[in-house]
Structure formats: structure tokens, C-alpha cells
Amino acid sequence: MARVTRNAMTKVLLQPIVLLVSALLSQLFIPTIAQSCTVCPDAQSLRDESLLLNAETFQTYNATTCGDLAASEALTNAQGDLCASIQISIGIGQCQCDPFEGTCSVCPDGTPLIAPQARIADTNTGATCLDVAEFAAGADASIPGACDVYHLSAFVCGCPPIEGGCSLCAAGEAVPNPDETVDFSTGETCGQLEERVPFVDAGSAYCRAPQRAAALYCGCEFVPQPGVCTVCPNGSLVPDPFLEFRNKFSGTNTTCGQFSVLASFETNVEDCANIHGVGASECGCESLGDQSCTLCSDGSSPTKLDGFLMGADGQVITCQDLTSLAPFVAPGTEACNNLQAIAATVCGCPSINRSGGCSICPLGELVSDPNLPVIGTTTCGVADILASQDSSGTCGRYHLFAEPCGCVLPLNRCTLCAEGTLAPFPDAIVTFAGTSPLGPLTCSEYEDRLLFVDPEDVETCKTGQVTGFFTCGCLAVPLPRDDPVCELCAAPVNAATIIPNPDDPFLRPVTCKQASSLVGYTTTEDNCQTVEETRSLCGCPSTECFLCRDGSPPHLLDAVVEIDGISMTCAELDEMTKSTTVEPEACLAIQDAGIYACYCEDAPNSCLLCEDGSALPDPDLVVVPGFTCARTEFFARTDSLDQCPAYRSTVGVYCGCVNPIASEGACRICGGNTLLPDINVVFKVDSKTTTCGERELDAATSENCSDLQTLYAPFCCPSDPPGDSGAGEGFTGRLVLAIALLLHLAENQRE
User: Fold this and answer.
1) Is the pLDDT of residue 535 over 70?
2) How does strand 378-379 pair with strand 373-375?
3) Which range scores top for mean pLDDT: 155-169, 179-193, 230-244?
4) Which of 378, 250, 246, 272 is closest to 328 using CA atoms?
5) C-alpha distances in angstroms, 445 versus 41, 208, 409, 472, 478?
6) Are 71 and 62 in contact (CB under 8 A)?
7) I need a labelling partner for 105 at 20 to 30 A (CA). Which of 80, 350, 369, 631 fits?
8) Which of 334, 366, 343 is nearest to 294 (CA)?
């Protein structure tokens, strides 16, 4: 490591234009445009037709002013995405039009720019306020914090100030050193940054990052913020923000100050632990001492301090590197688990703590040569570490790499040919579709790979045997799978009939008997239509199915039903069931949908939401997501009758019914007889999204009314306003460490 001067530092990543790149990747959208294109979005009138257009616009549209463009034939003919592009880049960017509804603007209150041609001093691109306005017009304002990055330019662009804005010094004091440089690529000073941040909300990540920079470079007091990440695990600032280090996992150079500013965007505990692992030891932070991660999962000492692992990007990670990082990582975190996984491969630790994950070797031993490339430039060691973080249970795909990684051959082995013989065509080439990391293999090579796979593994062994049948000359087909995507029939009458394949006459002929097993391994719903067309050829018995059990049409023809990921209206589903052969089990599932979604038959009980039996005052009111009062009443009538009082005391009341009997003693989230101000308020509990209406319905059948009131009232009742339910998502922590192996492993684990 070396101490570098300020002039040698690369930039502190605070600039809006730099951050626009990552913001726009997830937020950019093209709004729907009306049939006739106008300069301004949503057919707004031009504020000033005399505003001059830039030279590029003049050359493209032969228009000098915004008024000229509005009257031009080129604008009249513009449609769709072209019209949207004109409205964003010219209408909003040059003619001071208001942005699309639901998009961002430079000024927090949406007012037009006072100084549209002013240049943003914190960029090296020469961008003007109009340029930033153009970017902002493509960002979705409904995403929390999405607009804050553009508001950092508001001061330069002449926007009016906002109340409750950010203070550069977190403690609220004036900046002690306004002339100090805070951005070393553009020369922006602390004083200039102090003028920009009041236009950003005080709770935004784009307030936290400048405040972190001000504490590092401008002399402001450092105020720790609960839940916001710091490079040092004890929550303190890095001792020397100008200290430069090389990230061992990404191979990039940075300074401790830069890394600290980026860490301020992160609020996810696990990702913050990864930040500690990458930067804390390099930046002179205090270690966690006895409360830190042990490099070997069993607490033993590493036996190969000279060990190393070659990453896919060419970075070399040594055991010494890991030894220096572990004291700064908390035990039990994903970062600690990842360090221990690498240490098992690199440092001679006894084993990988797989935490229910997979391994390259089917018997669980470590790979014999961790630095042998096996998937492109990815080595056996890295692949084994990635496998250890995969708890999906589909481990067979990793075992396909056991043979080149030198694993021990298991006793239970999958054979390429279902009959157990060697492939008749060993030199035939097998190709793998989609995102499979397997490159083209000969049948003989594929045969060797499959020997390490469990013979009962449907996804890897059985599908491999299908390939063996079609490509490698195997005689038998695998047994039918238990959970097929498509089914022909178990015992086709015309078992020996050959199924013609006019699309590919060179494909191996298949009999109806063979097809009854093979079709279960089809991977797409599209192929199921072909299966249906084959049923009559093979003599499969037909099954008559009606959406409504009595054959009558459903009451709700336009209601939308989703079955197996396919959405259709009740009318379409009714027609499909009458014209298509449906197996009995599938027919029952369809008929269940007919009862609950399509109102196929009279409900089994007499529960009406209004206890006096009257019609619903507001049948179309949405009371819980996806359910109107009318639909909820039908659902209540299909539910158990003893649940009727709960429906009446909650949904019935909010639908306008007068229900004094059911309301007597009912549990109200807001206490007493106080109704919810808004039943459709959305919030999160235990990471699950819900509404106040759903929770009050839940409370109506609970014996713990007071506990539920305490839990939900802060979100649903105005006397106790909710906290920030959107916290914890993190913004740039994953971006910062995505190329680092630790975070790469953590992301794989979460997936």
C-alpha cells in the first residue's frame, strides 16, 4: 500500500452524471405516447414558442425554435418510440416542457429550469442542466430515491429550494473547510457541494454519500447512522481516506476514502460484511478480535499458508490474503461462510462448510486440483465454492464436472444409455442448449461425465439418457418421470405406431410407447401442444372436461384465471376445456378455478357481507389486492360458514354495509371502534408485502388482538405514522463488489 496525494486520487463517486449510468439501467422506460405527437409530453402547450433549439436539432428537423418544431411535418409523422424520444430530448430537454407524469425532473418541485444551459461543475462531460433533465425524464419516479441523483444538479440549474433538505454536515453545522477539494477529478470544493445537497431529501442515499465525503474531507463531524455501512466493522471512519489499496478480489485500485463513500450506499448487513472483508484490513481499521470469523470452519489453523486460488478473471487469491481479511468479518455472515469456503480450497482447512449446498464431487471431498480450468476460465476450486453456496438441491449439474476435477467415482452411477450398455455411437457430438456451461462433448465424454451423477437424478441423469437415445444410439428410453410437464398417456393402444416428424425427417423415429416416456422430459409448454395432437394417433383415451361441473357457462366470463403460469379469461378457459383433451387430475384443478374465479356455481353457504341481506352498497370497491367487494362476497360464501362474522365485521363494513351484530367486539387495528383510514395502504412485515385491509381481516379471527394492533397500527393508523418500510435494499454495494469473488458468492447463495 502507498499513501498518495490528493491530486493523484481518482474521483470520489458522488457525481450525478456518473451515477446516472447505473440508475438508468434499472429505471429507464419509454412512456406510452398518444397517437398524434406533440413537442411536450401529454399534449402540453409550449410555455415559450420562441425558445431556440440546438444545432443538432436544427439540422435534423430544420426547425429553429420550439414553435417551428411543433408546426413541422416531421413531428406530425413521428410515432411511438420516436415521438417519446423527441419529447424527452427536445421537449423536456430544450423546450422546458413538464416531464411525463411519473418521471423525474431536475427541480424537486417539477418547475422548469431557470438556467437550462448551465454546466454541471461536478462532471467531466460538459453536461448541462438540459442534459440532466433529459436523463431525468426517462427515470421512474415511483422507485424510492430514484429522482435524488438528478436533484443534486438543482442548485446549478436555478431550481427553488426545498424544505427538509440534506445538510452536508450531518450534525447540521456549517462546513468547516469550504475551500477543500471533495471531488479530485473535477475540483469541486466542499463549499460547492454544500450548495447542492439541500435539494436532496435528508433520508436519501444521495445525502448519506456526500455527508460521508464531508466527514472525510471537509472537516464535518462524523455522525454514525444506524444500519448504514462503514468500511471499518466497528462503525468508525477509515483512519486515512487518502490511502490507496488494490482490491485483491476485483484487481482494481481505489482509496479508502472512495471505498468509504461507496459503502455509505449500502444498508444490507450481509453485503456490508463483504465490504469489511475487502477494505477493513487495507485501510487500518481495528479488527473484531475474538468476535471475528475463523478461517477454518472447525476453528483449526490453516495448514497450507502458501496455497492460492486462481480466479476466473485471472486474480490470484492467496491464503495469506484470506488470513488478513478474516479478523474483520463477523462470524455467521455470508462473508464469513465464503471466506471459509475459499480457505478450505486454498489453505488446507479440513472441509467446506457447505450449509446444505452442493459440491463438485458427489462424495463431498475437495477437488484434487483447485486451479484446473473446467468451465471456460473458471477453475475447479471456484466452481466447487460456487456449488457450496447453492442450496437448491439440484446438485447433479455440478457433478457433471467431477470427472475432469479428479473426484472419486461413486458406487451409484448414471449411465448414458438407460439399458446400461455403452453408447453405440461414442464419437457422435452432443450439444447443450440454453445457458448450460457444458460445451460440445462426444457421447463417450458425456458418458464419462454422467457416471458421477446419481442415477435417480431426473434433471441431469434422466434427461441425459434422453440425449443418449436420440444422439448416441442408445436403445432404451428412461422410465416416465413422476412430475412431467406434458403427458401422452400411460398405456397407448397403438404402442408400436411410429410418430411421424415432418419437421425433421432425419430425427430418430419414435414409437407411441417410447413417446409416452419421452414426452415427460419436454422442457417447454409449447411442446405440449404437439403432444396433444399425438394423443389420437397413439390411441390414448379421451377425457371430457367442463369448466363448470354441470356444463353451464360461468357467471364471470371476463375474469382472468392463471393456471400453470398461463393467463386467460374464464370464457377462453371454458372454450379450451370443451375443445381439448384434459386428464382427470388437471380437470379437477380447472374446475376449482371455475368455482373460485369464474363463479361457476351457487356458493355452498348463505354468508352475505351485509348482515341484513341487502345488496352491497359499493360492489366494485377493491378491499384487498385483486378482490372487489362483490368478488370477496362470493369467496366468503365458498369459505367455512363460521368465518362469516369475520368477513362481515371487516370487509362488509368497508364495503358500506351496516353490520352492528358482527361489529360488536370486533378487533380493530386502530383500537376501539375506529375504522382504518385507508384499507389499501401497502407495507411490509417480515419482508412480505401486505395491506391494512388484509391484516384487519386476519385480526378478526385471531385471539391476540392487542399484539396485532401493536404490530400493524404504526403502518395503518394516522396517530402513529409508519417508519421507512423500504429500508435495507442497498443501492450500490452489489455494484461495488459484483466483480469481487466474495460478493459474487453471496449473490449466488441468495439466488
Assistant:
1) yes
2) antiparallel
3) 230-244
4) 272
5) 60, 55, 15, 11, 20
6) no
7) 80
8) 343
Q: 672 in the Ramachandran plot: left (φ > 0), alpha (ψ -120 to 50) or beta?
A: left
Residue given cell 481516506 in the structure block: 241
Q: Give CA–CA dist 413/39, Å, rounded.
A: 68
What confidence tens digit (pLDDT) does each residue in 385-437 have? 888 878 777 888 889 999 999 899 988 899 999 888 888 899 988 887 655 67
Total H helices, total E strands in the chain: 29, 19
At 749, give phi and psi (nearest 5°).
Answer: -65, -40
Encode pLDDT of 618-638 as tens digits: 888 888 776 788 778 877 776
The alpha carbon of 126 is separated from its chain's Cα centroid by a whole number of angstroms, namely: 34
In the block, residue with C-alpha cell 395432437? 533
**SS3 track for 252-316:** CEEEHHHHHHHHCCCCCHHHHHHHHHHHCCCCCCCCCHHHCCCCCCCCCCCCCCCCEEECCCCCE
Could you give the 3-state DSSP secondary structure of residue 11? coil
Cβ atoms of residues 105 and 99 within 8 Å: yes
Q: Higher-confidence residue: 123 or 259?
A: 259
Q: What is the 3-state secondary structure (H, E, C) of 64-131?
A: CEHHHHHCCHHHHHCCHHHHHHHHHHHHHCCCCCCCCCCECCCCCCCCCCCCCCCECCCCCCCCEHHH
Residues forming a β-bridge with 308: 318
